[in-house]
Write a structure and sequence with these properties.
It comes from Aporhodopirellula aestuarii. The protein is an alpha/beta fold. The protein has 2 domains: about 10-260, Aldolase class I (TIM Barrel, Alpha-Beta Barrel); about 270-335, Orthogonal Bundle (Non-ribosomal Peptide Synthetase Peptidyl Carrier Protein, Chain A), CATH 1.10.1200.80. The chain is built from 13 helices and 13 strands. Strands 3, 4, 5, 6, 7, 8, 11, 12 and 13 form a 9-stranded parallel β-sheet that branches. Helix 8 packs across helix 9 (about 250-260). The longest helix is centred in the C-terminal third of the chain and has 19 residues, at about 270-285.
Length: about 350
């Protein structure tokens, strides 16, 4: 049971309760995944996959269908955040304005944390921009004006490299530019996802913010760790990322723990398999059998992670291309025995 009452998170005029956020993750947090998370409950704010702002503008100008990464956004419950990335303030503002006016999103989040080479070195976006605070300021301030009164938030890392940790400076820039909240992943870009997130560093940032909330992110893979993050560190909210991909019920467990209630047990392995099959059907309904089956391979691997026989299952599910093959592999190989 937490030793103190955890207050809701306030992003602008938006109240997020519980203050547990689902991280935007490219290739994973699509509408099907978000629906599964909502069915379990516990996430105060959900987010889309990150959207390439420049690509979105091109599609709009050429009257193409909106990006797959915005599938479901128009119809699903609120609150909902959409994360966008690029390095051009005008492009970002144009996309932010459309997201607010046409999609009615609750929050527009800016990705300043992605460490993937295609985004950083090739597009000079994501975590690359941590070395250009003035450009970050320009992007945020333009978006704030374009999206008003919808709040604009930013997600960063500690810095580009362990020898160049500048998150305290960046936090001031983010707030001065008008952002309504700051999320910090406790690694540098060079760390990628290696090692442990540095929550002490995250916590230190709070002293450099005047009025906006600080959201901590990194290595939260249990309800106990979520409670500990609030008790030990100076954060206003937490964001759960990779750990939820195969365990979308983690938010419900964490929310119960924050309320001081008994933590719901892990679903049985049979129940977990049923969740995965439900997830698969949602993807099939949107994309059709062939594309959905290929998309579902990586999700299936997440659901199996940490289970006895998971490697064997991954080997087989990585080859499926039809619904019949997917169901056959799940029936024969999905791990139904606990790790021993």
């Amino acid at each position: 049971m937490p030793s103190t009452v955890i207050a809701p998170l306030k992003i602008g005029d938006l109240i997020i309760d519980p203050p547990i956020l689902q991280a935007p993750m490219a290739g994973f947090t699509n509408a099907a995944f978000r629906q599964i998370v909502r069915e379990f409950g516990g996430a105060g704010l959900l987010a889309t996959e990150m959207v390439n702002a420049r690509g979105f503008v091109w599609m709009y100008e050429h009257e193409a269908e909106h990006p797959d990464r915005l599938w479901g956004v128009g119809d699903e419950p609120r609150p909902l955040a959409v994360q966008i990335w690029d390095n051009d303030p005008e492009t970002m503002a144009k996309v932010g304005k459309r997201l607010v006016e046409e999609y009615r999103v609750s929050v527009v989040d800016i990705n300043f944390g992605c460490p993937v080479r295609q985004v950083t070195e090739k597009a000079h976006s994501g975590s690359y921009l941590l070395r250009e605070p003035q450009r970050m300021h320009a992007i945020i301030s333009k978006l704030v004006v374009a999206c008003a009164p919808t709040p604009v938030t930013a997600k960063i890392r500690l810095g580009c490299h362990p020898n160049n940790v500048n998150c305290n400076e960046i936090a001031k820039v983010v707030e001065e530019a008008g952002a309504a909240a700051l999320t910090v992943h406790g690694r540098t870009a060079a760390d990628m996802f290696r090692g442990n997130a540095d929550w002490d560093r995250i916590s230190e940032i709070k002293a450099h913010l005047k009025n906006i909330p600080l959201i901590g992110n990194g290595d939260l893979d249990s309800a106990e760790k979520v409670v500990a993050a609030f008790e030990r560190y100076n954060v206003d909210a937490v964001m759960i990322a990779r750990a939820c991909l195969g365990r979308p019920w983690l938010f419900a467990q964490a929310a119960a723990a924050l309320r001081g209630e008994p933590v719901p047990p892990e679903p049985t392995l049979q129940e977990q398999r049923d969740v995965m099959l439900h997830h698969y059907q949602l993807v099939v309904d949107r994309f059709g059998e062939e594309k959905a089956t290929i998309l579902m391979r990586k999700y299936a691997c997440c659901y199996a992670q940490g289970k006895r026989g998971a490697r064997h299952f991954r080997t087989h599910v990585a080859k499926v291309s039809t619904a019949a093959e997917f169901h056959a592999v799940v029936e024969e190989h999905f791990p139904l025995n606990p790790v021993q």
